[in-house]
Amino acid sequence: MTDNATHYQFLSFFLVGIPGLQEFHCWIGIPVCLLFVLTLLGNSVIIVTIKLEPSLHQPMYFFLSMLAMNDMALATSMAPKMLGILWLEAHWVDFDVCLTQMYFIHTLCIIESAFLVAMAFDRYVAICIPLHYTTILTTSTVIKMGLAGISRAMLMVLPGPLLIKRLPYYTKYIISHAYCEHMAVVKLARANTSINRAYGISVALSVMILDLGLITTSYIKILQAVFRLSSQNARSKALGTCAAHVCTILVSYTPALFSFLTHRIGKKVPPTPVHIIFASVYLLVPPAVNPLVYGVKTKQIRDRVVGLFFPNKISEK
Question: What is the pTM of this model?
Answer without folding.
Answer: 0.86
